[in-house]
Amino acid sequence: xxxxxxxxxxxxxxxxxxxxxxxxxxxxxxxxxxxxxxxxxxxxxxxxxxxxxxxxxxxxxxxxxxxxxxxxxxxxxxxxxxxxxxxxxxxxxxxxxxxxxxxxxxxxxxxxxxxxxxxxxxxxxxxxxxxxxxxxxxxxxxxxxxxxxxxxxxxxxxxxxxxxxxxxxxxxxxxxxxxxxxxxxxxxxxxxxxxxxxxxxxxxxxxxxxxxxxxxxxxxxxxxxxxxxxxxxxxxxxxxxxxxxxxxxxxxxxxxxxxxxxxxxxxxxxxxxxxxxxxxxxxx
Length: 284
Description:
The protein contains 12 helices and 12 strands.
C-alpha cells in the first residue's frame, strides 16, 4: 500500500473560506490563505481549493489567492471550479496550481478530459464527482456544486473518466458533506472496484475508525477533509474584522461549532492511521 494522503479541502467563495452542509448553507470561516498555511505547517500532504460559485458565473476567480498560497507552500495544490477551457486550466497552473479539478465542463463535454490530459498530462487532471444516492439505491452525478442533476450514473462515469485519461478521481458524497456521519464506504467501493486510478474520498469525514474503513474497505488512496480540520483551525488562527468583508459571518462571530463534529488535527489522523498499520507521510 502506498502512503495515504491527507488533503484538507478548502471551499472558497469570494475572498473567504466557507463551509456548508450538503454543499449548501455556506458559513464564512476565515481567509483561505491562513488556513492553507496552517495545514501546510501541520503536515498536510496536499491542498484542494474549490471555488464553490465559479460554475454559476462560468469563471474561476481564485488566481490571486492561488498565487499568494503557492508562493510559500511546498506541497501540491489542486484548484477547481469554473474551469471550462484549456486556457482556463493554463491560467490557474500559471498562477501556481499543480493540478486542476474538473466537474461541470467534463460532464457536459467528456472530450474535454481527454484534451486536457493530452495537453497538460494525466497527473495534472483530476475529475471530481458529486454523488447523490437515489431512492432506488443508485448514485447519480451532480454538477454546479451539487445543485443540478445530470442523470449520469456515477460508476459508469468514473470508468469513462479513467478511459479518457484523467489521473485521479475525487468522489464527494453530497449526502454526507458537512454532516460528520462518515465517508460513504459503499459509494467508495463501487468506484474503486471499477477503476485503477487513485480515488480520493470526500464528504462526511468523522471518526478515525471510519477513516480507516474508507482505506481498508473503500480502497481510497487519499482522504479529502474539511469540517473537522476547519473547526479546529479557526479557533487557533487570529483574524481581524477586515478579513471578512462579505458573506455570512454570523457563524464565525457566534463562537459556536457544529455540535456533531469533533474537530481534530492532521497529526491526530496520521497518528491513528499509523497505529492502524496504514502508511502515510510523517508530520515533521
